[in-house]
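Students often ask why inverse folding is considered easier than folding. One informal answer: many sequences map to the same fold, so there is more than one right answer. In these notes we will look at a single instance of the problem. The structure comes first.
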């Protein structure tokens, strides 16, 4: 495959030569030119700013269709789709004053369209906006997005939940490649640090057409931070202090860009003590330390664009087993603990042909996970090595029809080096082939696609048959066909309707196929089932949006039916004082949705009122296995915010204040190994802005989360079984310098 991709590059590059440029002038609707407007073409990593006369130029551009983005503070962002074929293209832009309707380019979908052109509703959030909420981890910020929750173990470990599905049913992409960090485990977190990440896109629903197995429930797609503007450099330092954990998150980054060659690097360090609950006690050994390093090197010209990125992440995580006992503000985890080291390397390439292009993404992930019980010798050590590739050919456009064909695959090996085994040594090979088309006319869009996948799993035998830790050798093959069909239309000028039908699948993971032992943390003796079949789902989504300059409304509804849903159920036996659970299958269904408003009244342009409600219900179709509620279904949630924006004064600009109320309802429909959960309300406050002294400027933000120090327990907390509450009041102060 590597040789095939290289041959494509060499073979097609000779047909793709162009030295195009775009020039223009940017002004407002009063015919005043605008200085300092950011102009970017993300696909070729080109970015510049308008000069003192409002003029700009983008050089060394290839032929083809590109989205050009214009951004300026106080004005509405604009995105123009331009077909570049001439040596010089003139594009003059008039920006309108801001009315808070942002239309982002969505990278995670097939054709990289604007949100307004997409047949699928995708949630797009900048990491900066999540950080302004005073969150301590990336997953904590994601859980504030409607339809997204987290399964948490204290403040250090969190796993994403999208509309009631989690674990291997949610796929994570970073640096353009699929992340693999042994996410089958309940205590295995996201494995990503928010430093060096620009934004996140959330696909809520089956995305197997583009991403293959494990995208049955949805996708989290993280976009790396952009390189510096052409012929500029930037030094950035930011730090946050958290009163509850006496923790710090600090990050230092440097970016340097020429016309074609670009470089970036960022290092961050996080340290947190045990978190404190509302009564003042700390939950023992929930502390953690994290070191993260990201770097990128990019080159683009009129023929091709290539970006190499590397991410090193090291986590030292305490495992809370004693509840509330020894009180300490130490940030160094005690035994038992986990050590996780993750290396992610990616190479993202685009070759531009005359009327088409080829994308090739290569990734390598090395994940080393160790567990220490009472000494520095790991009793459990698993090394997971993953190579994946994704090659797509964007065919020449025929009228208004765009089409893509592609191949995608993965080779993965798991190796055990410790005394204990959770899963056997194994090799997994994936291969998928797909095609999709997009037809757009007026303000209507139809998109359809089909895909075939094959997964092979081979594992080694381990242990003595009949004893704990025995794994039989496996040689399994899983196959699946999937398809999708989506339609988007404007019912009226301000009303958008989207309707999508899609199927997805998930092959059973090694834990579900082979488990034979006590699962630490849940106190269950789990027995795998080598006869498990694919999970296969079919989901219908309906999205309705209304927006005008001062009011927005959205309603999302979904129904998701899953054949052969995999779950665990007690069989009535006891081994070593632990209840025995079997992995079984039954059909299941999930349904619900999200609704919300954004009110920006005129002439009160400084006021923003937002409110959203989300709900999901999950049921097994058969009661023959006991209680039919699915596990890890988040409670209904209502979230409302009142935000004010202040006029700039001498030393403070772009300032804001926000008051947020989050109400979580009772969860009265637990699964067979869960208990009911009570409702609770959390009040949060935030304030921020840009402080300026002459030529020195920096951003500040102050947050007070759980302002009233409420005592509560989330339904998805893994410490709930021991009656341990979630985090109490937390005051966060953040400062961000850019030079």
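Output (designed amino acids):
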């Amino acid at each position: 495959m590597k040789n095939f991709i290289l041959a494509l590059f060499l073979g097609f590059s000779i047909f793709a030569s162009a030295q195009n440029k775009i020039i223009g002038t940017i002004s407002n609707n009063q015919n005043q030119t605008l200085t300092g407007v950011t102009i970017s073409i993300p696909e070729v990593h080109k970015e510049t700013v308008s000069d003192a006369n409002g003029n700009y130029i983008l050089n060394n551009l290839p032929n083809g269709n590109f989205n050009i983005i214009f951004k300026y503070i106080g004005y509405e962002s604009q995105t123009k789709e331009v077909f570049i074929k001439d040596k010089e293209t003139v594009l003059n832009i008039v920006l309108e004053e801001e009315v808070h309707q942002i239309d982002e380019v969505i990278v995670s979908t097939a054709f990289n369209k604007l949100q307004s052109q997409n047949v699928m509703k995708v949630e797009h959030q900048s990491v900066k906006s999540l950080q302004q909420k005073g969150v301590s981890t990336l997953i904590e910020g994601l859980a504030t997005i409607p339809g997204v929750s987290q399964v948490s173990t204290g403040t250090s470990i969190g796993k994403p939940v999208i509309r009631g599905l989690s674990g291997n049913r949610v796929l994570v992409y970073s640096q353009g490649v699929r992340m693999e960090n042994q996410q089958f485990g309940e205590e295995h977190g996201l494995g990503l640090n928010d430093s060096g990440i620009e934004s996140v896109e959330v696909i809520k629903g089956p995305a197997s057409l583009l991403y293959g197995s494990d995208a049955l429930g949805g996708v989290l797609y993280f976009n790396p931070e952009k390189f510096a503007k052409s012929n500029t450099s930037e030094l950035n330092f930011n730090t946050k202090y958290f009163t509850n954990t006496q923790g710090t998150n600090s990050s230092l980054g440097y970016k340097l860009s020429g016309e074609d060659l670009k470089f970036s690097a960022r290092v961050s360090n996080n340290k947190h003590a045990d978190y404190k609950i509302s009564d003042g006690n700390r939950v023992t050994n929930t502390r953690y330390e994290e070191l993260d390093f990201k770097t990128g090197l990019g080159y683009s010209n009129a023929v091709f664009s290539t970006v190499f990125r590397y991410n090193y992440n090291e986590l030292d995580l305490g495992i809370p087993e004693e509840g509330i006992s020894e009180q300490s503000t130490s940030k160094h985890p005690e035994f038992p603990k986990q050590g996780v080291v993750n290396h992610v390397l990616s190479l993202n390439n685009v070759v531009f042909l005359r009327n088409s292009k080829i994308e090739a993404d290569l990734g390598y992930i090395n994940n080393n996970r160790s567990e220490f019980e009472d000494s520095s010798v790991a009793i459990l050590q698993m090394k997971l090595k993953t190579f994946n590739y994704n090659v797509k050919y964007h065919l020449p456009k025929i009228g208004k029809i765009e089409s893509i064909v592609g191949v995608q695959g993965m080779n993965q090996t798991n190796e055990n080096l410790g005394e204990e085994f959770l899963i056997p040594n194994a090799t997994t090979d994936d291969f998928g082939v797909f095609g999709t088309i997009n037809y757009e006319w007026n303000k209507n869009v139809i998109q359809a696609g089909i895909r075939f996948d094959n997964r092979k799993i081979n594992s080694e035998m381990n242990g003595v048959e009949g004893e704990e830790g025995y794994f039989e050798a496996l040689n399994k093959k899983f196959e699946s066909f999937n398809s999708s069909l989506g339609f988007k239309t404007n019912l009226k000028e301000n009303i958008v309707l989207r309707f999508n039908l899609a199927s997805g699948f998930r092959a059973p993971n090694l834990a579900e196929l082979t488990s034979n032992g006590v699962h630490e943390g849940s106190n269950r003796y789990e027995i795998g089932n080598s006869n498990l079949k694919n999970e296969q789902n079919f989901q219908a989504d309906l999205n309705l949006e209304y927006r005008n300059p001062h009011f927005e409304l959205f309603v999302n509804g979904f129904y998701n039916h899953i054949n052969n849903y995999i779950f665990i159920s007690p069989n009535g036996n006891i081994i070593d004082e632990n209840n025995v659970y079997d992995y079984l299958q039954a059909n299941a269904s999930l349904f619900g949705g999200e609704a919300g408003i954004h009110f920006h009244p005129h002439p009160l342009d400084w006021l923003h009122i937002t409110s959203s409600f989300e709900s999901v219900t999950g049921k097994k179709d058969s009661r023959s296995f006991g209680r039919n509620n699915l596990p890890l279904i988040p409670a209904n949630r209502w979230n409302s915010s009142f935000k004010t924006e202040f006029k700039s004064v001498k030393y403070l600009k772009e300032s804001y204040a926000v008051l947020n109320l989050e109400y979580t309802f009772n969860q009265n429909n637990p699964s067979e190994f869960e208990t009911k959960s009570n409702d609770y309300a959390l009040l949060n406050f935030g304030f921020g802005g840009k402080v300026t002294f002459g030529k020195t400027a920096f951003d500040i933000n102050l947050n007070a989360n759980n302002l009233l120090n409420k005592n509560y327990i989330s339904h998805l907390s893994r410490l709930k079984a021991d009656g341990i509450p979630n985090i109490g009041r937390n005051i966060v102060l953040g400062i961000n310098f850019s030079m």
